[in-house]
Structures
1.
Amino acid sequence: MKPIIGIAGNLLTKHAEVFHDNLVTYTPQGFVDGVQQANGLPLVFPIGNPADAKAYIDQIDGLLLAGGQDVAPSFYGAEPSLKLQETEPRRDFFEKALIEEALKQKKPIFAVCRGIQILNSVQGGTLYQDLSEYPQWSVQHLQPSIPTVGSHSVSIDSKSHLASLLGTSVLVNSYHHQAIKELATDFVATAWSTDGLVEAYEAKDPAQSIVAVQWHPELMQATDEKMQGLFNDFIERASH
Ligand SMILES: [Mn+2]
């Protein structure tokens, strides 16, 4: 049996001509490709009623949290700063319910970009709303170049699960203007950019199987075996 991977989908809220201005539910293709190439069965969840989270999580072996909008600052007790970008509160509340149910059922989680941020927010952590407001973050985290190639390095804790997959240093792509500020106490940071920003974390509780990364492995997996390796590992974790 192939493990079933629930992917929390997004809603295209900007009217797109190609869809005749209709609203469209979607997930970036790299998540589908990464899961399929790892022999998993992707299942995209449209944004829905938080009360349905259990019914969704009951059906899956792992939860994938994808990239997208900024998390609403109210989720971590902050007011919106001037450089906050688009938020989608319906997605925030639905994903919060999916996360809480997945943790309750101890289903493996793979969180990417916005995913690392909302997971941290739901568990009591906080975010930087825009890195340019803080001069200490001196590495470019919003790369203007193509996403298939990494731009900044991260150093990885040699004792982490992530290091067993990527080694202790790797080049990652970077498309985030927000980042982890205070990490939730349930998590332990496992990778940092050279300016000290948290780029990955895992769960402290060995009963929870979580890999969260700030970069976009789904945009590198087609050409980078190590990044496909994160998907292979997720499917492996979801197989138990
Ligand atoms: Mn980065």
2.
Amino acid sequence: MVETETAMTPKKTYAVGVDMGATTIKSCVVDLNGKILDQLTVDTKASKGPEIVVQQIMVTVQELFTKHKPAECLGIGIGAPGVVNVNTGTVLYPPNFADWTEVALEQVIRKTFPLPVSIENDANCAALAEAKHGAGSDVKDFIFVIWGTGVGGGIILDREIYRGPFGGAGEIGHVSIDYNGPLCNCGNRGCIEAYIGQRYLSARTKEILESEAHEGVRSKIQELVEGNLVRIEPTTISMAAQQGDRTAIEILEEAGDLLGCTLASVINVLDIRTVVVGGGISAAPKFVFDAIHKGVASRVLKPHRLAIRILRATLGNSAGMIGAASLVM
Ligand SMILES: [Zn+2]
């Protein structure tokens, strides 16, 4: 009897994860150990409206199913930017997606693929991936920060995503460190994102280089962008720092210190003492992580100071899609 059942029910061996970004849609097949077996990336037609984007997701998933048996699939997980209502499977107003108000993405996908479907905020997906298969796999609780274009976050409590009663927990990027500080995209002032998010950090670097140029100092950063300071990206600063450029090191040390200041407040509130830092900056030199650690340690309450750990995320750009797949595992 048992044997017949086993023969009839195919073993579930993998899940599909989709990372719906404003620039690219990344989809993959992930085995039960979090290993990527297959993946596809397409440029997101985010300006064409939700119907086209949803269609793109369907097509990529369909393509993965041509090589992997749908009967062996546990389900489809999708990570989306912005606000996601996980109860209704709805994606609301994702930033940088044109004409997108509220889309019941889970329902639409399930209509085409009769499999379990789960939708989650993209930063939460990346946090979950690090919790299950990455830097946070040996800790029960940690604060996750994605430092890249913006500053995103997630909270892992007892190995699960902590969403809060209204679903919006973990917005670490909008912790303000100065109520008179620079204006943030969200309308508040002094949010950490308004200091170290890609656009702000690049602008600040440009400013510093221009004032240094007056003093006759020339930074490696200028060489890397061939004098065109508009082209400065955090990776440029990081590369210059790796080559020993003093200005670049100072800028990243300051940014690390500011993030440390933010995290000290978060740690004071939550008393979760492990932080996993992901996003583009997770490839930055060690001194940036040391600066974050120092920034936390010098400001957090004394009783919270022991056992503070700042870890580098290990899954890189794949964290979002691996985490999405983990939603249905
Ligand atoms: Zn903000």
3.
Amino acid sequence: MADIFTPWKIKDLEIPNRLVRSATWEGMALDDGTPTIDTVNFTADLAEGGVGLIIAGYSFITPLGRGLPKQSGMHIDAMVGPQTRITDAVHKLGGLIAAQIVHAGGQTRADWIGGQPEGPSAIVHPAFKEQVRELSKSDIARIVEQFAEAALRARAAGYDAVELHGAHGYLISQFLSPNINLRGDEYGGSLANRARFCLEVYQAVRRALGPRYPVFIKLNSEDGLEGGFTPAEAVEVAKMLDQAGIDAIEVSGGVPAAGKLGSARPVVKPEDEGYFFNNALAIKAAVKCPVMVVGGWRGKARVEAALDKVDAVSMSRPFIRQPHLAKLWKSGQSDQATCISCGQCFGVGMKGGVACGQELKKAAGK
Ligand SMILES: Cc1cc2nc3c(=O)[nH]c(=O)nc-3n(C[C@H](O)[C@H](O)[C@H](O)COP(=O)(O)O)c2cc1C
């Protein structure tokens, strides 16, 4: 059985163990996207807790691509200073941190972004119910460039790697999904065409950052919707990215309209754990780069068993409740996350910063 605490590598980045904190929006930034001291402390606590690699909560590459309120930004050079406070705090504690950069596309609200949501096609978004404006080819070229500029800022801010958000129904994932991307040009239709935007973003980021800097992607492995992006298509896109030189793939899945088949599912029984594992195995068999898998991992034994077949396991909600989970598992003090996957962390986040709803109830004596 593989050991969670065996080091591994993404390109030259030496990661001390196989536990990754999957990106988690903090809901702690100022309205202009500036990360705050709360963002710094929330992230530093994870570094103290011994997780191998932290993937920071997603940062938007342009205000029109903001996915949620109080989200951090990587859209202008003025963000580099405040973002550096996060990486400095993590590095001082001996941790490693990747930035995650995103354009939310049509999966957002006009009042959050101060304009009409933009996406591959002019549809009413299935979950957000707002009219999306279809991106022109020059808009697409602009956004590809904005991804590259944001990646350069992330590196300037001291991040150890950059992850592209290619999952959960955001813009890259929208282009991949045949039920959202209805375009008749070279960005729509065949899988090669739907994957074009994703590959252009990756190539632009790679050109900007050069061959040695680690660049990876969180990729949807299925949408969980009739007529959406499928596991078989995800394998093909993973192969394209692998051949193009991506340094790792974090396998996820789900879109908000998929409900219980979304990205952050309820995990009630041990059998519910690792709900994208089979998709990750299919991707792992098709690529050379390291593969991480996220989605419902809660128990040390199941994580260890998964590590026989994939390179790393990532988690989000368990680290909200127990930022020091890696240390607890390493010391043998526990072998099970206490997260009950209730998802209240998200609602708490909307009210003033992500925290565990169960822990807040306990603290309030409820
Ligand atoms: C409060 C909250 C914020 C999240 N923010 C992000 C994010 O910024 N980027 C991202 O890729 N996924 C985000 N996710 C999804 C998680 O990274 C993860 O894919 C999902 O929660 C399943 O993993 P888990 O069962 O370990 O929580 C978020 C999830 C939650 C609950």
